[in-house]
Amino acid sequence: MVDAAGPGCGTIGAVTPEQVTMLRSEAGREALAAAATLVDTDRLAAVERLRRGGRSPELAAAALGQARLRQRAAVKFGAGADRLLFTDDGLQQATRPAVAARRARRLAAAGTDRVVDLCCGIGSDAIAFARAGLRVTAVDADPGTAAVAAANAETLGLADRIEVVVGDAAAVHRELPAGGAVFCDPARRAGGRRVFDPAAYSPPWEFLLSLTGGPACLKLGPGIDHALLPAGVEAEWVSVRGEVVEAALWCGPLAGVPRRATVLTGTPAGTPVEAAELTGDGTREAPVGPLRRYLYEPDGAVLRAHLVAELAEAIGGSIGEPGVGYLYTDAEVATPFARGYEIEEVLPYSVKRLRAALRARDVGVVTIKKRGIALDPDALRRSLKPSGAGAATVLVTRIAGAPTALLAHPLPAPPGGA
Ligand SMILES: C[S@@+](CC[C@H](N)C(=O)[O-])C[C@H]1O[C@@H](n2cnc3c(N)ncnc32)[C@H](O)[C@@H]1O
């Protein structure tokens, strides 16, 4: 590992390079194995147990900390989490392996053979790049996080393809020879909380913008404002089983289309995925039409990418009012880009009428969804006091200017769907 910087940027729940070295020693591996059996034990008792046999308090605490991180990491990394080291911040910010693998395959397919990962964290993206056959320079300002990335690369047998550098992204980027592509996934957490303002990213937005002229991929928060996106970049929103997990800007020769929604379905952590993509320019308006028998609620990636019009075209749908992204169709359609409902009853929106309708249908379990209307679903559910044996979905929206409640049932998800 190369050290090109002084002190790092100081992450929360940090791990030091010394702890990484300690955990990778034989005694460290034994302590980790022992700690894995104690993750659900009270912390003090677990540390006490680990200290028996002469382990230092530092080793016992570090091993238990890692064992607990690995347990949490299993949600994102699957069984593979047990081989990796993490930091608290690094785990929270790490790209899901399925998303990282997809990005890496796209870079490799574009002919890239070398990538500089300017904010590598614990190395989830860097590992995916290396697995896709790319040579990786992985940079992180935090020495402990960089040490974790280097340890993970070594554990996975990828150390010959991943060189880890401790340093500031901007400084390292200035010094590295040109060639290959740049990937940057800036820190979007500060003081243990998420930051939403790109100016508060680390490195900041200004630096990220300086990368957009060349072959670069930038990972951003899904809430990024379209108005901030420079002309000529591709903005891709990615969702995993219905949750929008990131926006990625593909820059320079890597840009394909103005806007892309990528929907990954059927993805238990760490396993292969089904993916579907919808593309467009993100500026079209969907046609407005009457209420029809089926309602399709676009996936968050489609909504964020402003591709509702493209989805409307693909499924023969229309919206009920400009700017309100529920799509209506006459026929049932199989699409990975939306969740479908069959509408059973249409009511002008009124709590009293809705309560009566639910009572008449003996509905006790209500799922409330809303679009284009300001209401608090929990407060509405409390006012409805549902108490029957059945279940229903209520979608509250505006149709041709009128607040409307739709009683519906969800259509079965398409095979492999969310
Ligand atoms: C969002 S995480 C990267 C996660 C990584 N892509 C993964 O999937 O594991 C951002 C990382 O950037 C690092 N960082 C923040 N500011 C930096 C800077 N100016 N230069 C280099 N690294 C920086 C943080 O220490 C953190 O580890």
Explain this structure.
Keywords: Methyltransferase, Transferase. The chain has 418 residues and is α/β, with parallel strands linked by helices. The protein folds into three domains: 2-74, no CATH class; 91-280, Rossmann fold (3-Layer(aba) Sandwich), CATH 3.40.50.150; 294-410. Helix content is 32%, strand content 26%. It is built from 14 helices and 19 strands. The protein has a ten-stranded mixed β-sheet, sandwiched between helices. A hairpin with a 2-residue loop joins strand 9 (234-240) and strand 10 (243-251). Helix 1 (17-24) packs parallel to helix 8 and helix 3 crosses helix 4. It starts with a strand and ends in an 8-residue tail after the last strand. Mean pLDDT is 92; it is low at 3-12. It binds S-adenosylmethionine. S-adenosylmethionine binds next to helix 5, helix 7 and strand 3.
What would the keywords be for this entry?
7-stranded mixed β-sheet; alpha/beta; Rossmann fold; binds S-adenosylmethionine; 3 domains; 10-stranded mixed β-sheet; 418 residues; disordered N terminus
